[in-house]
Design brief:
heterodimer; A: alpha/beta; 45% helix; B: alpha/beta; seven-stranded mixed sheet; six-stranded mixed sheet; 18 helices; 15% strand
Chain lengths: 503, 503
Amino acid sequence: MANYSEVVTSMRSVFRTGRTKNVEWRRSQLMALLKLLDDNRERLSDALKKDLNKSRFESCLMEVDFVRNDLINTLNNLTEWVKPEKVKKGLINMMDKVYIRREPFGVVMIMGAWNYPVQLTVAPMIGALAAGNCIMMKPSEISENVAALLEELFPKYFDTECIKCVCGGIPETTALLKEKWDYIFYTGNSMVGKIVMKAAAEYLTPVTLELGGKSPVYIDQGCDLGIVSNRVLWGKVMNAGQTCIAPDYIMCSKETQDALVEKMKATLGEFYPDGPAKSPDYCRLVSDRHYQRVKKMIGGGGKVALGGDSDDSQRYIAPTVLTDVTFSDPIMQDEIFGPVLPIVPVKNEDEAIAHINEGSDGYPLALYIFSNDQKIVQKILEGTNSGGCTVNDLFMHCGIPTLPFGGVGNSGMGGYHGKFTFDTFSHKRGCMERGLKMESVNNMRYPPFTKKKENTAAWIMKKKLKSNGSMSLIPYFIFGTLFAVILKVIFAPETPVMNFFSR
Amino acid sequence: MANYSETVNSLRSVFQSGRTKNLKWRRSQLMALLKLLDDNRDRLSEALEKDLRKNKFESNLMEVGPIRNEVIYALNNLTDWVKPEKVKKGILNMMDKAYIRHDPLGAVLIIAAWNYPVQTAILPMIGAIAAGNCVVIKPSEIAENMASLLEELIPKYFDTECIKCICGGIPETTALLKEKWDYIFYTGNSRVGKIILKAAAEYLTPVTLEMGGKSPVYVDEDCDLGTVSNRILWGKNSNAGQTCIAPDYVMCSKETQDALVEKMKITLEKFYPEGPAKSSCYGRLVSDRHYQRVKKMIEGGGQVAVGGDTNDSERYIAPTVLADVTFSDPVMQDEVFGPVLPIVPVKNEDEAIARINAGSTGAPLALYVFSNNQQVVKKFLDGVNSGGCCVNDCLMQGSIPTLPFGGVGSSGMGRYHGRFTFETFSHKRGCMERGLEMESVNNIRYPPFTKNKEKIVTWILKQKLKSNANMSLVIYFMFGTLFAVFLKVFFAPQMSVMNFFSK
C-alpha cells in the first residue's frame, strides 16, 4: 500500500530551509526544464505518438512548443513577478510602505491529464516553480508512455529533494490525496474533481480544478461557412476531439446546418486527402474504455451526415458529424471528448443562450461564437458565462499567456497560463510597514473615546462619492488651460500666443 | 426543517434574467446600502453595544466607518472595474481583440461572523453586488441583536428578489449548505471552515474562507516600548480581543518582557482611567461559552503580570498579560480570541521564527514585527508566511482597500477588500475576438502536416529568452545617447552641445 507521508514531510523540511524561495534556484530549475524539453523533443513526440497517435506537428504546436513558450515568457518576467508590488495608499498612510508580497505555498501537487500529458503537467509546473514551491507531479497513468518518460527524466534534470514525479493509478492517487498539500492543481473530469476537492477540504488546502463540459459553438447567419467549417473541424479533429476545450456541439439554423455539412465534407477532404484512417496526422482514442464510450455516441442522436466509421483494433473513430440532433438526445447529455460532432438546429441566438444557461452540466469551459455581427457576439457574451471564449475561431483564447485559462461553475475554478500560473501558486500577502515615531497621531484611536476624537476620526476617514463622469472632466480642462498659460508665461513671455505654439 | 431550494431557484431565475448584471442596478443597490448605513448609524451602534458592549466610537472606527468608505470606493471605481480589461498580445494576434471580462457568478452565500457582525456581512456584500450577483447574507446568530437588525433592514432597502438576509442557527446554516451556490464566502473558525469546504465540494462551488489562528507579535530590542505597548494593547483590547487579526501572543527577550509589562501597566491606565471594568470604552465577551473559554486561559501558563480579574455576570475579563509563558502551556495551543495576552520569552528572532513555523495552528492570519532593524524585519517576512503583515503596528494591514485581506494555509483561502472583493465574486473570462478573414494564414495549422508547416510554425511561435539584465541596460544607454544626438542634430544643429541642454 503506497504511503507518501515521508516524502511529503521531507519536501516540507526542505521548503522550510528556504531553498526553493531563492530566485536563483527557481531560475536554475526553470532552465533545467527548458533543457529537458529541448534535449528530449524526439522522445516526448514518440511517447505522444504511442499514447495518442499524436503527429509530430501536433506534439510541437499543442504540447512541447506551447509549454516552451510559456516557460520562456516566465523566465523573461521572473524578476518582475517576484518583486513586491507597491500599491496605492491614501494621505493617512503617506509615511508608510504598503505593498503586496508573493509567497510560495509550500509543497504543491500537480495532477496531470492524459489528453495533453505534456502540456497539462508542465504548464502548471512552470508557475509553481516560478512561485518558489516544492512540487509533486502525478502524471496520468492512462497516457502511460509519457508518464514513464517523465518519471525517468525528472530526477535527471531537477533538484530531486524538491521536485518529484510519482506514477501510478487509483491506489497511488488515493494515497497521495491522503496527505496534506499546500496546493493541489488538478486537470481532469468533474467526478474526480469533487473527490480531489473533498480530500483537500480535510486540510483546508486551496485548489485549482481544470475540468470540462460541453463547449458549444454558435454559428450565426451570414458567415463564410467554408472558413467556419475549417476552423470548427480543426478544433474537433485535433487529438481526435480529446481536448477539454474542443467544440463539443454546434447550434445554428437548419439552413446553416445543411450548408455547413457540405462545406465540412470539403474540409475533411482537404485535411485528409487519403481519408483520416490512413492519415498519419489523425489521432486515436486513448483507451478501449474511451473508445467504446465515444463509439456509442455515433448512434446517440440525429443522423450520421459524415463519417461514422470506426475500427476497434486501432481505437479509430472517423471525424463524424450528426445532424438534426435534439437537446434531449443521449449524445447531448455528457461531454463527448471524441471526434463526434452533433449539430442541433435552433431558431436563433436566444434559444442558444437559453440552452447554454440551462444545460445540465452548467457553464461550459469554452464558448465559441461565429458571427460578423458585433451585437450578436455581445448579446451572447453578456447573456452567458463560460471559462473563456473565442469569437470566429477555436482555442485561440488559450493561446496567449495574458489571458487567464480556466473554468467556472462545473467547468472548474481558478485560472492559469503566464503570470496567472505564478499567481495561482502564490499567496498574495498584504504588508504595511510603519515607523515607531509620530505616536501622538495614534492617540486619536486610543481610549478613552471622547466626542472630539470621534469627530476628528470621522472627518479624517470620510471618503467622498465622486461626481458623475462629465463633471469630472471640467477640472482637467481648467488645469489644461492653466498649464498652457504657465508654459507661455515662464518660457516665452514676449512671444505672442500664436507663435508660441507654432515655434 | 428549513428548506431553501425554492429561495435559491428563484434567485437563480432572477439572475438569469440579467437584472443584477445591469450596471445601473448594481449602482442603485450600492447607493441603497449607503443609505442603509447612513440612516441607521445609531441603531447599528446600539446593536453592537448590546451584542459586544462595543463603544460607539469603536463601532464607527472599526465597523460602520470602514464599510461606508468601501461602498464609496466601490461606487467610485465600479465603471472601471466592470470594463473589459484589454491585455497585451503578441504580433500574431495584432488583428485580434484580446480582453478579460469580469462576469458575475450567480447566487452567492455570505456567512458572517459574530465578532464584527456588520463588517463580515456587509464588506463581502459590497463586492458581490458590484460584481453583479444575487446575494444571501446569513448573519451569525451569536450576535443576535445585529442579526435581527439586518434581517429587518435588508428587505427595506434592497431589491428583495435579489438580495436576502436569512437568520438562524446551525439547522438553518446546514440547510443553506445543502443547496448549490455559485460562491460561498465564510468568515469564522477552521472547524466550520472545513464543513463548508466539504459542502461546497459537492457542487464544485468555489469559496473564500476567512479564518484565524494565533497571530504572533515579535518585539525586537531597542524599540520604544511605550509606543509598542500602546499599539499592541490597542490591537488586543479592541473588541475585547475578539478580532481575527488581534495580536494573539508576544515573543521577545526576557529583559524586553519585563520592561514591556511596566509600560503596559501605564498604557492601560491611560486607556482606562477609571479601570477597564468601569470604562464605557471596553468590550465584553460575546457569550457565556466564549467567556468561560477565555477565562480558563488566564490560568493557562506563566504568571498573571497585569489584570486577571473577571466578572461572570457581565462576561467581563480585564485586559490581562501573562509573563514567562512557554510554548507548551495550554494558552499557547489554540487561538486566544480574548483579552489575554501571553508573553513568551525567546532568545532572538531566529527562535521566534522557528516557533511560529512549528506552531500547531499553522500559518497565522497576521504577523506583527516591532523592530527598527530592517534586517530583522526581512528575516521575518522571508522566514514566516502569514495572511498579512504589519510592521510596528497592529491591525492596520486590514485598513486600506488596496491591500488584499485574507489567510493562507489554515488561516484561510482567498482575499478581499476593495477591488479584491469584486474579483472574488467575479469570473475572469479570457476572450479573444478574431475576424473571418485571412483564412490562408490559418492553413499552416491544418492537416496535412508537412515538414514545411512544422518548420514555419515552430519559427513563428518561438520566443527568445531575454539576455540578462546588465546587458539590456547597455542597450538602453546606447539608445539614450543616440536619441540625444538625434535631438541635437535635428533641432539645433548650429548650437554647441552645452548650450542646447541649458537653453
